[in-house]
Design a protein that fits this description.
Chain A has 13 helices and no strands. Chain A has helices at 2-9, 11-32, 44-51, 54-84, 94-100, 107-120, 127-152, 155-163, 168-179, 181-197, 200-205, 213-220, 225-249. In chain B, a hairpin with a 2-residue loop joins strand 27 and strand 28 (438-441). Classes of the chains: A mainly alpha, B alpha+beta.
């Protein structure tokens, strides 16, 4: 009795999962293997994609933008996260709030204003401005997971390293950084994936000159939903593979990462 | 130690002078002075919160003392960061790096070590000068021609990586170089062998048991050949059997390595088994320092006696030198130098009671309980209204009447730390005063000699003179017995936490620490637990006041107690 009641409690969640997670994935898969007329085609859509002239350039741009955004976010985000864990710097938790507040402001508004600043300064819009926008947008996603992992590192490890003769700088590189690896990896994934698939940022900050995968899918949506689905599916498979690989390297010992 | 210390080296490797540490306005370590001899196994012993770990952390360099000097080999290291101190720590939680395996954990310190090498070129010829580090032999397996394996003891390999440095003629060049890889390898393997974990090099530290992790932590520290090894309750997380085994191993490691150990523990048995010197601490101060035998046989305070081993602690009075009265009988003792009729604490170890036929001892008693404890019987005995603990190899059944005798030398007599509670107060009215933030009511007529109190008009007259108490400051005294402890803290003006209890044969002397860190002592028949929150009630006529401005020396009522 009790057991069945407990199982019933899970029904809303099961329904939610089915409706909003499983069904869309199935639909994408179905569309990806269907031609315009609704007939089944195994590789037709992918063949079409391969013939698109614009696609290689879009992929190249996406790789450049995604990688440089995540690297820049790491370089900026890691020191911030590190100092935020220091009590004297973040006594009341206000500082961490300040770094997360940008997420609460509508991002379209922020991008449009950023563009206004660039044009006012006569800076040509292009890859550079796009990367700037992406960093601006996704930096909090890098800070958060790194902050939580560093915060969880027991202080005794640092003390242990210093006791064994490591200067604070050495102790940082030999203990803090390796122990915060789970946070770095989840931060990287949390930045790289959305920055590849976002669309508005590129459109606004490059005046539509530059296209990333997200923009490309967006541009296809009106006349060929099947092609868009095919790209999405391919992207999904690629991400799943990369996630499996990173998880293999990062056997989550202490928890910490968000993924 | 005799001839080796030619160059003014004292016998003491480390000296703490006036060392003080304050956390958030609370003094954790209070002006302690301690000298530790070279090569000794010293234990800092005390309950949690007594400042022992903080003292250790100050020696390691993790805490900066507010005041005082830590001098290692005569040099003050109080301001030196931990990585520059020639000491290593074994942490309570081990602190093994989870991202490194056993080998890399142990090699961590050695890989960081830099050594100065002096190179000279003389007449174009390069001369490499290498100062060898402490000689530690290493055992190597050698396969002979006929296939048999023998174990050969060989000295350590070269310690440093050789570097060719082109230098100008005759110019000295000092270069810092890393230790030679093979040397690190030998040292790590040697350390693993000392702790009995050879073949564990490649293991993940998280896959090891508590005892094994402990051994790795010790290996990681000793491999650096520290001048002092600091151990912060290293056996706390192990189970009893493992702990006893590790105690013996640590002791033998100490002998083998010959370095100074400073060990922190709250386990008195551990301290007695392992140490050369025990330092008993309480409330950030050192209570007593001595060999385990001294500490056990001649405790200097009831606190130390109670903390170390089992003991009978009784209230006594010394009418004259070499005589002490307790439990209703007069005993001979060997102590002198006490004031006539001074109230003292008397300590008698349970095994020091000599059981005689009834009437043949100094004290008569009746056995009330008997328990077999392996080597001896532990018996309780009621004598002169006090409950005593006796240890004897002969069994006496409950109900048996006996006589008790103690050899004068086995009676340990100590000054009382406190005779009553004497604390500063501020009066808030003619009938109330503020003590440590709690407002107590009192009956002025009963507390001031020669006083009259008119309740209706709130007029207090002492020796005919009208006095307004409000705002005055002075001291209040009240006896341990006058306190009524209650478990409802809101039913009393003042509350505190039970810090410690000492059984005095009849009653418990309880040390209550109030929220502003004042100690109040109370006598009670009931057993409280450490940490219990209790309310402190005192009847309104039990107070005696002193140090008030209108009092002259003779009529200060509290004077007697203060003396």
């Amino acid at each position: 009795m009790r057991n069945t009641f407990r199982k019933m409690l899970a029904t809303p969640y099961a329904l939610f999962m089915a409706l909003f997670i499983i069904l869309p994935i199935v639909l994408i898969a179905v569309y990806a293997f269907m031609d315009k007329d609704g007939a089944f085609t195994l590789l037709g859509n992918f063949k079409d994609l391969a013939e698109k002239e614009a696609l290689p350039k879009v992929i190249k741009n996406s790789v450049i933008a995604g990688l440089s955004t995540s690297v820049i976010c790491l370089l900026i985000g890691y020191p911030i996260a590190y100092y935020l864990t220091k009590k004297e710097f973040n006594r009341t938790g206000v500082m961490i709030g300040l770094f997360l507040v940008p997420m609460w402001i509508n991002f379209l508004l922020r991008m449009v204003s950023t563009k206004a600043v660039f044009t006012a300064l006569n800076i040509p819009l292009g890859m550079g401005t796009v990367i700037y926008g992406l960093c601006y947008e996704f930096l909090p996603f890098m800070i958060m997971p790194i902050y939580t992992t560093i915060q969880k590192i027991d202080k005794c490890y640092i003390e242990g390293a210093e006791d064994l003769g490591a200067t604070p700088i050495k102790a940082f590189w030999k203990v803090t950084v390796p122990l915060s690896m789970p946070g770095i990896i989840s931060g990287m994934t949390m930045v790289i994936i959305p920055s590849i698939t976002t669309f508005a940022v590129t459109e606004i900050l490059s005046n539509g000159k530059l296209m990333l995968l997200g923009d490309y899918i967006y541009s296809l949506r009106t006349y060929n939903l099947n092609l868009a689905s095919a790209i999405s599916l391919a992207l999904m498979v690629l991400l799943a593979i990369s996630m499996i690989i990173t998880n293999k390297f990062n056997k989550d010992e202490n928890g910490g990462g968000i993924w | 130690m005799e001839e080796k210390n030619k160059n003014n080296q004292s016998d003491y490797i480390i000296e703490l002078n006036d060392l003080t540490k304050v956390y958030d306005g609370k003094t954790v370590v209070d002006h302690i002075n301690l000298k530790i001899k070279r090569g000794q196994f010293v234990t800092l012993l005390g309950p949690s919160g007594c400042g022992k770990t903080t003292t250790l952390r100050m020696i390691a360099g993790f805490e900066k003392p507010e005041e005082g000097v830590i001098s290692l080999e005569g040099k003050d290291i109080a301001d030196l960061p931990p990585y520059k101190r020639p000491v290593n720590t074994v942490f309570q939680k081990y602190a093994l790096f989870p991202h490194l395996n056993v080998y890399k954990n142990i090699a961590f310190g050695l890989k960081l070590k830099k050594v100065e090498v002096t190179k000279k070129t003389l007449g174009g010829k390069e001369v490499k000068k290498l100062v060898n580090m402490a000689y530690m032999p290493v055992e190597q397996k050698v396969v002979k021609k006929d296939g048999t394996e023998i174990v050969k003891t060989v000295p350590f390999r070269r310690a440093y990586q050789m570097m060719t440095v082109t230098t100008k003629k005759g110019v000295k060049k000092i270069k810092k170089v890393n230790l030679y890889k093979k040397y690190i390898d030998d040292k790590v393997k040697h350390a693993l062998k000392i702790v009995g974990l050879s073949d564990y090099e490649d293991r993940d530290v998280n896959s090891l048991s508590g005892g094994q992790q402990q051994r790795v932590a010790i290996a990681r520290a000793i491999v650096n050949e520290p001048q002092i090894l600091l151990l912060d309750e290293p056996l706390g997380a192990l189970d009893l059997k493992m702990r006893q085994e590790m105690q013996l191993e640590l002791k033998s490691m100490h002998k083998k390595l010959g370095i100074t150990f400073i060990y922190v523990t709250h386990d008195q048995e551990e301290a007695l088994t392992m140490s050369d010197t025990i330092v008993v601490m309480k409330d950030g101060k050192i209570c007593q320092e001595g060999t385990p035998i001294e500490i056990y046989n001649e405790p200097t305070s009831a606190y130390v006696a109670d903390f170390i081993g089992e003991s009978n602690i009784l209230d006594g009075v010394m009418p004259e030198d070499k005589k002490v009265v307790f439990a209703g009988a007069e005993f001979e003792c060997v102590d002198t130098g006490f004031a006539p009729n001074e109230e003292v604490d008397v300590v008698i170890r349970p095994e020091d009671w000599v059981i005689k036929r009834e009437g043949n001892g100094i004290l008569n008693g009746e056995i009330t309980g008997c328990m077999f404890r392996g080597v001896h019987y532990e018996m309780t005995c009621m004598a002169g209204g006090y409950e005593l603990i006796l240890h004897n190899t002969v069994e006496y059944k409950p109900g048996r009447k006996i006589g008790l005798y103690v050899d004068p030398e086995n009676i340990q007599i100590m000054h009382k730390e406190h005779v009553d509670n004497t604390l500063p107060v501020r009066f808030t009215s003619n009938t109330t005063f503020d003590l440590c933030g709690g407002v107590y009511e009192f009956r002025p007529a009963a507390c001031f000699e020669g006083s009259e109190y008119d309740e209706e008009n709130d007029v207090l007259k002492i020796n005919g003179e009208e006095i307004v108490l409000k705002g005055k400051e002075g001291k209040v005294s009240f006896e341990f017995e006058s306190i009524d402890m209650t478990d409802d803290e809101y039913a009393a003006p003042l509350a505190g936490n039970v810090e410690s209890m000492i059984y005095k044969g009849k009653n418990y002397l309880v040390d209550i620490k109030t929220d502003n860190n004042t100690h109040i002592y109370a006598d009670t028949e009931y057993l409280w637990d450490k940490g219990d929150r209790v309310g402190i009630k005192v009847e309104g006529d039990k107070f005696r006041f002193s140090d008030l401005d209108f009092m002259t020396g003779s009529d200060a009522a509290g004077e007697k107690e203060n003396a």
